[in-house]
Amino acid sequence: MTWRFALLIEPAPADDPRTDFAATFEVVDAATPALSVGELSTQRGDGIFESIGVVDGHPQEVAAHLERLAHSARLCDLPIPNVEQWRQAIAAAAAEAPRVGEGVVKLILSRGIEHGPTPTAWVTGADAADFRGARERGIRIVTLDRGLDSGAPARAPWLLLGAKTLSYAVNMAAIREARRRGADDAIFVSSDGIVLEAPTASVILRLGDRFVTPAHDGGILPGTTQLSLFEHLASLGHETAYETIPVAALAEADAAWLVSSVRLAAPVSAIDAAPIAVDGELTAAFNRYLLSPRD
Ligand code: PLP
């Protein structure tokens, strides 16, 4: 059966002390229109979002996603979300999720409706796309120039690099360009040759015994999946590091993955048409961990 769920939220101020926010929620039919045509999220992509993986009814890493939602809100001058209200909205969505299988709960906080009211917020729930092939066979990626040097995030904070905004048209265009070049996905690099992130995922490399991911100061989205996996790897005694990674290091990586909340860990099988070994056993271990209940 297809899971589709939608809940409109009347956003409460961050310091609203209520413990029960049920009165601020309205469950609506996910198959019928529910947004105003004046929505600035649809007109301008002016808003922020989160995608939370749901496994067998359990929403994964809720606290980390809410922390990042608040981070994005600060970067975008949106009202800071009330954490308890959003936690309850996520719980309401997850309560309706199938007890078996993978889903996704999306949180959206929009600038609102032109001429008010503002902001608007809602949560949706749906079945996840099937990523089993990508997790098992791997994905071919190409590097794409993001067209900005590594000083741009600090020099031009209004570009909102590092916020999870609704403006993903560029990210989707990069994936289409990757497909035109015969690959499955892309890794953005800065114009001065630093590895950044994929359009919808974080990059993790294995360099010898070390697991390395791009430093978060380079204007990338801090990934909740990468963070969770690094904590797990560290707890197993592995060395993990955040580094400035030159694009040349990709060719020397012993293994590479794209990781994100719904796809989980997809091993990279080729970078710019050069094959790279897929470690099936390690990837399966990553995904067993990522599919286990995580808070
Ligand atoms: N980087 C970008 C640009 C993304 O869009 C995403 C997820 O959609 C990620 C990284 C990975 O983040 P997470 O692991 O929290 O899903």
From TrEMBL:
<dbReference type="InterPro" id="IPR050571">
    <property type="entry name" value="Class-IV_PLP-Dep_Aminotrnsfr"/>
</dbReference>
<dbReference type="GO" id="GO:0005829">
    <property type="term" value="C:cytosol"/>
</dbReference>
<dbReference type="GO" id="GO:0016829">
    <property type="term" value="F:lyase activity"/>
</dbReference>
<dbReference type="InterPro" id="IPR001544">
    <property type="entry name" value="Aminotrans_IV"/>
</dbReference>
<dbReference type="Pfam" id="PF01063">
    <property type="entry name" value="Aminotran_4"/>
</dbReference>
<keyword id="KW-0456">Lyase</keyword>
<protein>
    <submittedName>
        <fullName>Aminodeoxychorismate lyase</fullName>
    </submittedName>
</protein>
<dbReference type="InterPro" id="IPR043132">
    <property type="entry name" value="BCAT-like_C"/>
</dbReference>
<comment type="similarity">
    <text>Belongs to the class-IV pyridoxal-phosphate-dependent aminotransferase family.</text>
</comment>
<dbReference type="GO" id="GO:0046394">
    <property type="term" value="P:carboxylic acid biosynthetic process"/>
</dbReference>
<dbReference type="InterPro" id="IPR043131">
    <property type="entry name" value="BCAT-like_N"/>
</dbReference>
<dbReference type="InterPro" id="IPR036038">
    <property type="entry name" value="Aminotransferase-like"/>
</dbReference>
